[in-house]
């Protein structure tokens, strides 16, 4: 295994070498995804559980006729099950061939990040390790940029 993840697959920003990132919270952690992958952000709604689904798959919802799987990001990252609150939201992401939802504690912001602030994620070989695409340095803060295809790789239906 290499000591770092390859950053060559990260999207290139069109203007001034900037990438727009949707940031959100899981406990005291700030994470993000590329804005072009986000289709919409919606409030929590109960899911329909599916038999034999992975433990981090909460179930499915009907989003205007499209059935999408909703993933508990907290559990997928090895942080225990999510506790739904008034600020909990589902970020609906477009993975090209399908839509998926990820449950997060709250959405924070949309930020512009220069490519020079992207760092390779360390190879830590822990639960959820493959879910990191890069780390973004913003002042004294570090934002974990998620690899959505790794988060939702299991197909529950």
From TrEMBL:
Domain CheW-like, residue spans: 18-157
Superkingdom of this protein's organism: Bacteria
InterPro entries: CheW, CheW-like_dom_sf, CheW-lke_dom
UniProt xrefs under SMART domains: CheW
Pfam families (UniProt xref): CheW
PANTHER family assigned to the protein according to its UniProt record, in alphabetical order: CHEMOTAXIS PROTEIN CHEW (PTHR22617:SF23), CHEMOTAXIS SENSOR HISTIDINE KINASE-RELATED (PTHR22617)
Protein's recorded name: Chemotaxis protein CheW
């Amino acid at each position: 295994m290499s000591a770092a993840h390859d950053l060559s697959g990260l999207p290139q920003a069109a203007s001034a070498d900037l990438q727009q990132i949707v940031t959100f919270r899981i406990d005291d952690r700030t994470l993000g995804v590329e804005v072009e992958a986000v289709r919409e952000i919606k409030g929590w709604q109960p899911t329909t559980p599916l038999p034999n689904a992975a433990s981090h798959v909460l179930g499915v919802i009907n989003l205007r006729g499209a059935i999408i799987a909703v993933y508990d990001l907290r559990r997928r990252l090895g942080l225990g099950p999510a506790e739904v609150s008034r600020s909990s939201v589902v970020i609906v992401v477009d993975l090209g061939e399908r839509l998926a939802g990820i449950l997060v504690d709250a959405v924070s912001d949309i930020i512009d990040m220069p490519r020079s602030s992207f760092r390779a994620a360390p190879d830590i070989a822990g639960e959820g390790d493959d879910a990191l695409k890069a780390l973004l340095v913003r002042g004294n803060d570090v934002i974990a940029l998620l690899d959505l295809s790794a988060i939702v790789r299991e197909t529950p239906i």
